[in-house]
## 1
Amino acid sequence: KAGRRMFPAVRVKIKGLEPAKQYYIAMDIIPVDSKRYRYVYHSSQWMVAGNTEQSPLTPRLYVHPDSPASGESWMKQVVSFDRVKLTNNDMDEKGHIILQSMHKYRPRIHVIVKEVDEHISVNQSLPANGVHTFTFPETEFTTVTAYQNQQITRLKIDRNPFAKGFRDPGRNRVSLERVMDSYPWRPVDCRPSLDFQNFNIQKPVGCSASPLGSSCTG
Amino acid sequence: KAGRRMFPAVRVKIKGLEPAKQYYIAMDIIPVDSKRYRYVYHSSQWMVAGNTEQSPLTPRLYVHPDSPASGESWMKQVVSFDRVKLTNNDMDEKGHIILQSMHKYRPRIHVIVKEVDEHISVNQSLPANGVHTFTFPETEFTTVTAYQNQQITRLKIDRNPFAKGFRDPGRNRVSLERVMDSYPWRPVDCRPSLDFQNFNIQKPVGCSASPLGSSCTG
DNA sequence: CTTTTAACACCTAGGTGTAAAATT
DNA sequence: AATTTTACACCTAGGTGTTAAAAG
C-alpha cells in the first residue's frame, strides 16, 4: 500500500543562511488538535465530530532530498516538498509520513545546521541544537480519503498535471480564479500573478486536502 | 541536447569498508588510448582508424546519488550506476559524462572516504587522499552514435526494458544466450545463472556499446 | 562516403481522481 | 451510513532503437 503525494506541495524560500555552511531542510506534519472532524455540506465547513482515539505517534521527519547542501544552494532556489508522501497506514515501512484521516494538521519546516560528522536520515528524530522550525498558518489542512468539497476536487484537477485527464475543457481560468478567490489563504498581494509557482508557494488547501494513500500499486 | 544512459550499467559489490565511516562512491570514464576506431564488418572487430584530434578533457566525475552513505549501507547492496548519462556534446552543462564517439573507454570506480566537512559534488575533481580507484577490464567499451554490430543491438533490445517495443517475440532466450556465449567478457562461473542481475554485474559491452546522446528532447 | 542529429512510435515508471466494492 | 480500499483509465515524465534528413 503506497502513499500519495501532497498537493499542492509546500514550497518555501529561505533567507539568512550562512552561504558556506551546510544545512538539512526537513518537513514534518503535526496534529493541530486531538479532534476528529466531519465535513458539513450545507454549511461548507469542518465541524468537530469527536476526539482522536489512536495514541499520537511521533511525527516522521521527511528530509529534503537535496540535503545536505550549502546555505548558498538552498537560498538560490525555491525549496519544494512535492515528493513527500502521506499515508494513513500506521504500519508503513516505506518512510512515508503517517497521518490519520479526518484530522487537522500543520506542516513544519526545519532548518538544521549540519554539525561535523552528523548524518540525518528519514525518520530520525530532530537534533537537540541548531534547529530552526517554521510553520505557516495558511498551510493547515484536513486529511481525507475521499474528497468532501467539490471545490477542492476542481482545484486539484485544474492544477495538478497528473490529473489532466479529468479536466473539463469548458471550464476556464476565470471561473477557477473565482473558486480560489473564495478562500482566505491567498494574500492579496499575490493575486495579480496567479501562476503555478505563486499558487503553490501559498499552499492552498483550505477546508479539505491531500487524500491519504488509499491504494496505488504496492 | 540530452545525454543517454549507459546500458548495461556498471554495477559493483563493495567489501571491506568500515561500517560506521561515511563514503562517496563515484564513477568516471577515461580514454583507453588516443586512437579513433572504425568497425570492420567482414572481420567483426574494431580497427584503429587514426588518432584523436580533440585535446583530452578532464573526465567528469559522476557521484553516486546515494552518496554520502555509511560503509554499512554501501556494502549491503549492489551499487548500480544505471542513471549516469553520456553525451558527445563537449559544451554539455547538465553534468553528463562527455565522451567522443568511435573511441575506447574504461569506467573507473572511486571509493572516497568522507573527511569531516568535506562535500563532493558532480564535476568536482577527486580529493588528493583517501581515494581507492578500481577498474574492471571487462567493462571496456567503444562509443558509437549508431550501432555498428547487430549483435549488440539485439542484446540491448532483449535486455533493456525501455527497448521492449523492438523485441521480436520469435527470438527466444536460447538464441540470446548463444549470442552472449560468443563474447569473451563473461566469466565461465557465471554462465549457469544468466539472469538479469548477473548479466549486469559483468557489464557486457564487448565490441560496441552505449550510443552517445544523439537527441532526445532538450 | 561516413557520422551525427532530430523527430518519432513504443515502451517503463509512476502520479491522478473515479467508481464500485469492501469494511467498519 | 460513513469511510476506506481496490482496480482502473488517463495522464506526466522520461528511456529505447529506428528512420530520414542533415552535416561533415
Note: The first strand of chain B starts at residue 4 and ends at 5.
## 2
Amino acid sequence: LDPQLWHACAGGMAQIPPINSKVYYFPQGHSEHANKAVDFHEFPRISPLIPCRVSSISYLADSETDEVYAKMRLVPLGRNECDVDDEGGLMGFSKNEEKEKPNSFAKTLTQSDANNGGGFSVPRYCAETIFPRHIYRGTPRRHLLTTGWSNFVNQKKLVAGDSIVFLRTENGDLCVGIQRAKTGISGGPEVVSGWSTGAAN
Amino acid sequence: LDPQLWHACAGGMAQIPPINSKVYYFPQGHSEHANKAVDFHEFPRISPLIPCRVSSISYLADSETDEVYAKMRLVPLGRNECDVDDEGGLMGFSKNEEKEKPNSFAKTLTQSDANNGGGFSVPRYCAETIFPRHIYRGTPRRHLLTTGWSNFVNQKKLVAGDSIVFLRTENGDLCVGIQRAKTGISGGPEVVSGWSTGAAN
DNA sequence: TTGTCGGCCGATCGCCGACAA
DNA sequence: TTGTCGGCGATCGGCCGACAA
C-alpha cells in the first residue's frame, strides 16, 4: 500500500517508527492483542520488554474490510547494541511524515451520502484540490459525485459515519481509502505473529 | 443436521458406515484429500490401513455454501478386536437407510428456475406429495413457486444446474437442501483432521 | 456551503399466460 | 407435464432542484 494513503486512512493517532529505528517490544502487550493471551507467569525468563531494531515495515489493508494495518519485523538487539543514546535513542519516532503536507482529504459520510438513493456531496476544498471531475449542480450549486457512487457504497458496505479518504499522489494518481466507524478492534485481520517459530531468536 | 436430509442432499453415492461398525482407515488416502499431502515414506512404521471402530458421526453442512459433509471419529482397534468375522465384519455398510422411503424430492434447476426474473416450476410428484402450498396457474396449469423464490436463489447464489431437495420429515416438518453443480471438490470446507494431535492414539 | 427532502424517470424485478416440446 | 419466452405492472435505484441550516 502507498504509505501516504495508509497514513491518511489510519489517521494521525497511528504512528509508525521508521525502519532501522530502535524500539521496545513488549511480549505481554503483544500477546494481549492476539487471539489468545499467553500466561507469561509460565515463562519467568522472558523479559517484559525487549530492545529491538525495526527491520521491515509493510503497510497493508485487509482484503475484505479494507481496514489498514501494518506488519513490522523486529530483530532483538545484542547487549552491546542497546545503547539508549545511539542515534536518537529508543522509542524515538521520526515525525517527518507530517512535514510533507499530502494532497488528501477525508470526510465522514452523512446519512445522505450513504443513502442508496443518492450521491456523495463533495466538500468544496476537496473538490477544488483533489478531484478531477465531478457534477456541479443544484441551487445553490454544489459539488457532487453521482454515477458509480452507489455501487461503491454497496460494494464496500459503507454506512453513515464511515469515512472516506481521497489522496492525490505526487505522480498524479488519485487514491481512495475508507475508514469504518465500527472498528473491528484488534490491529488487523488476525494477529498472526510467530509465537511458535522465530520469537525466541 | 437431520440425517435423512443429509442423505437426500449427499445422494446415494455417499454411504456412511453405522456407528460402532468396524472400518479400515487409510492414512495416505486421507492425507491426499487434505490440504497438504503427507509423504509417508518418511514414516515407514505407519501401517497403510488401520482397523478402526466408528465411535461417532456428525452430519454437517458448510455454513457458507450449505454443502453437506460428515465428520467421523475413528478409534483404532486393539489386536484382539480385529476379528473380521465379528458382527458383519470390516467394511460392511448397513443399507438400512434405503429401506425407509423418505418423502423427499430432488430437482435440478433449469435455466428458467434460476433466472432472477421468475419462479420455480415444481414437478407434479413433488407438488402432490411434499408441498404444502404453491401457485397453480397458466395454460395448461402447472405448479409453481413464485414469491420468495427469487430471494432464495439470490441468497444461496444458485445457478442453473444446481439441485434442490425437498424433504418432508416424519413429524411433518418441511426441510430444504441444496446441492451445487460445481462441487468445491474435497469433502467439506477444510479437511481439518488431527494429524498433529490424536492421530497416533 | 452542504445536509436532507420529495419528485420523477428509467431499469429492473417478478408474476403472468402463451406456446411448444 | 413442464421449459422457455415476451409482456406487463409494481417496485426500486438513482439523478434532480428546492429549501434550510
Note: Chain A has six helices and nine strands.
